[in-house]
Specification:
The complex is a heterodimer of chains A (about 300) and B (about 350). Chain A contains 11 helices and 4 strands, in the order αββαααβαααβαααα. By secondary structure, chain A is mainly alpha-helical. In chain A, the strands form 2 sheets. Chain A has a two-stranded antiparallel ribbon with strand order 1-2. Chain A has a two-stranded antiparallel sheet with strand order 3-4. Chain B is an all-alpha fold. The chains are: A mainly alpha (about 300), B mainly alpha (about 350). At the A-B interface, strand 2, helix 3, helix 5, helix 7 and helix 9 of A face helix 2, helix 3, helix 4, helix 9 and helix 12 of B.
């Protein structure tokens, strides 16, 4: 189960090289997250459209009433109504097209929906994300998403036979909706054409340094016991175990710490004592890390407990 | 005094902390932590869009801090096994990288550059595809004409119902003449032109989108649309109204057909780049072509707005052949000059 999750995550891991030559690991956004983001965006757009329509309808109603009541105002009212219709069409057009452009060209590179699920767009080649890319990927969105919808609405309004139209629109929609499932980088058609992809936006806090306390120096604050581990006792674990230990210490759950302390004691042949696990683990962690980092500086690394060598 | 005391305490506490770290890699981190946190606060404020609240010093510091933190990351990767700190640094460098190498312009800035030369450059870049699409459109008109000339029954296959109201083979000259002139008071003009716009935008976007399938459907769509035109041209020619029909069409037609030509060419450009990527990989080639074609398409939408306004207003208001021809030819010359004569070097466009 755990291995399966790791495999899944690895499947989404990519390495992007910045112009400075630093390899940055990035994680592609999951298809579910992207779908969720799109759903949120669509809801927001529809809400904005409804609000704009209501507002303009209200204005139009007032103008029409004025046209009826005052004879001289009739011509002016007609022009005003014409203008409102144009305004409405322009507003709908902008909501549909400019919404994505506006937000994705911003510093976050993400629409409101994408921000909420924590993803953003980036250039696939590691270079600058250009305005052209954003426009290209959103032009295609129009075709992927809105065209079949428009087709359906148009057909139902004109009263044509719905069967074939429905079939065509669905097939069209499916081709593009399933596009991300058929390539390694989960690109939709717009990403392919634009040279962009969607990645997870990282948001991590700086955690405390691990080797600050007294326990890290090997002395327990509660019992005053001094923990010193010998070369052989440290040599059994590698980097993978070290990072697992780090996670356990940062999560700071007593049961987990007790279990890990017991496992380590068993492995190195110590007598597990109760009540001072945290100090024990901190001391072990610090000394193990000092040993492994010392090895690193000499160019020797030990990936996990199965790795040979030092 | 008290404040000094406070600061003094903090400073000694920090020094003590640096001394307290048992590991060399943690001491490395403690010495640089200040820079990391400053970068993080700048990045956070920029991401939130609060650019005005940033001091000049912070804006200037961003690229420097980005490089500092990036080098911290490189060093930490070689010397530290603190997974949480490494993950934090990777995330921070990535966020800063997005800002340092993010889009330079907003939507308005892009639009200004777009009108000031980017659009016409993109159009010139797909010149070859435009020529092919033009040849296809001319061929489409010819095919439509020849088919209907050989057998008038073809007319009903080529011309959609909405155009085939009174304009059918066998219609008298007066009827046809009536469809071209004197429709000034037809209906609310603005709503009509808005409808036309959405209709035409769909055809153009379709022509572009179908470029995916190696551009062949784009070309078919062009043929189909221009064949309709050829058939109608034949109909009016039969009654000696060729020039009047051409003028009626040219008011908006020079703009609209040009836009559809560009859309088809943009689709073809993408199709060609997928079918014949040349030295590049298919994906890289498609991306490069897609970025050029999308510029052209953004322009096509603009042209269609212009065409719809011309069709809705100018065609109904100008009721004689000469005036219509003048408008049509003027628009054609305008577009050609804008795309192929108007050139500006990219550096100069920044200034004006």
């Amino acid at each position: 189960m755990n291995a399966a999750i790791r495999q899944l995550r690895n499947d989404r891991h990519r390495v992007m090289v910045t112009p400075e030559g630093i390899a940055l690991p990035i994680i592609l956004a999951s298809r579910g997250a992207r779908f969720g983001a799109l759903l949120i965006d669509l809801i927001l757009i529809v809400l904005a459209m409804i609000l704009a329509t209501l507002g303009i309808a209200l204005l139009a109603g007032g103008t029409a009433k004025l046209g009826f009541e005052v004879d001289q105002a009739k011509g002016a009212a007609r022009h005003a109504l014409d203008f409102l219709i144009i305004l409405w069409i322009a507003a709908i057009f902008l909501f549909r097209n400019a919404y994505f452009l506006f937000f994705e060209l911003g510093p976050r590179g993400a629409t409101l929906g994408k921000r909420m699920v924590g993803i953003r767009i980036a250039a696939r080649d590691g270079g600058r994300l250009s305005a052209e890319m954003v426009i290209a990927r959103n032009l295609l969105r129009d075709i992927e998403l809105f065209l079949p919808a428009v087709l359906l609405i148009g057909a139902s309004a004109e009263g044509t036979e719905m069967g074939p139209v429905m079939l065509g629109a669905t097939a069209w929609f499916l081709v593009f909706a399933l596009f991300p499932f058929f390539n390694r980088d989960r690109l939709r058609a717009g990403d392919l054409i634009a040279g962009s992809w969607v990645v997870e936006a990282p948001k991590r806090k700086l955690e405390a340094a691990m080797s600050l306390g007294q326990a890290a120096r090997g002395t327990s604050a509660t019992t005053g016991t001094s923990y010193r581990f010998g070369e052989a006792e440290l040599a059994i674990y590698g980097e993978y175990e070290l990072q697992t230990l780090e996670r356990v210490l940062r999560e700071n759950r007593p049961e987990a710490q007790a279990a890990v302390a017991e496992a380590i004691c068993r492995k190195i042949g110590w007598n597990p004592g109760a009540g001072d696990e945290r100090a024990f683990l901190e001391a072990y962690y610090t000394q193990l890390r000092a040993r492994l980092e010392g090895g690193m500086r000499m160019g020797k690394r030990k990936a996990d407990k199965y790795a040979g060598g030092n | 005094m008290a404040i000094f005391g406070l600061f003094g305490d903090r400073a000694t506490a920090q020094e003590a902390a640096i001394e307290a770290a048992a590991l060399r890699s943690d001491r490395f981190r403690q010495q640089r932590e200040g820079d990391w946190q400053r970068l993080e606060s700048i990045v956070t404020r920029m991401e939130a869009g609060r650019l005005r609240k940033l001091s000049d010093a912070d804006v200037l510091a961003l690229p420097v801090l980005y490089r500092t933190v990036a080098s911290s990351l490189s060093v930490a990767r070689e010397t530290s096994l603190d997974a949480a700190t490494l993950a934090y640094l990777e995330g921070l460098v990535q966020r800063a990288w997005f800002l340092v190498y993010g889009p330079r312009v907003g939507l308005l800035g892009w639009f200004r550059r777009f009108l000031g030369g980017e659009w016409s450059r993109a159009v010139r870049a797909i010149r070859a595809d435009i020529l092919i699409a033009l040849a296809v459109m001319v061929a489409g008109v010819l095919v439509g004409w020849l088919l209907v000339a050989s057998d008038p029954e073809w007319y009903f296959a080529l011309v959609p119902e909405q155009f085939a109201d009174a304009r059918v083979p066998g219609a008298s000259r007066a009827v046809l003449h009536g469809t071209l002139f004197g429709n000034g008071e037809q209906q609310s003009l603005s709503a009509f032109s808005a409808y036309l716009f959405s209709h035409n935008a769909q055809i153009a976007i379709l022509a572009f989108a179908l470029g995916f399938a190696f551009g062949i459907p784009s070309l078919l769509l062009l043929v189909q649309n221009t064949a309709t035109m050829g058939a109608m041209l034949w109909l009016y020619h039969g009654q000696g109204l060729t020039l009047d029909f051409a003028a009626w069409l040219s008011v908006h037609g020079t703009t609209e057909l040009f836009a559809i030509l560009l859309a088809g060419a943009a689709g073809l450009h993408i199709g060609r780049s997928i079918a014949f990527p040349g030295e590049q990989s298919v994906l890289a080639s498609a991306a490069a072509a897609g970025q050029r074609a999308s510029q052209v398409m953004a322009g096509v939408v603009l042209m269609l707005v212009v065409a719809a306004i011309l069709e809705g207003f100018a065609r109904q208001l100008i009721d004689d052949t000469f005036g219509r021809l003048a408008v049509g030819i003027f628009m054609l010359v305008f577009w050609l000059a804008y795309f192929f004569v108007f050139r500006r070097s990219p550096n100069r466009s920044e200034q004006g």
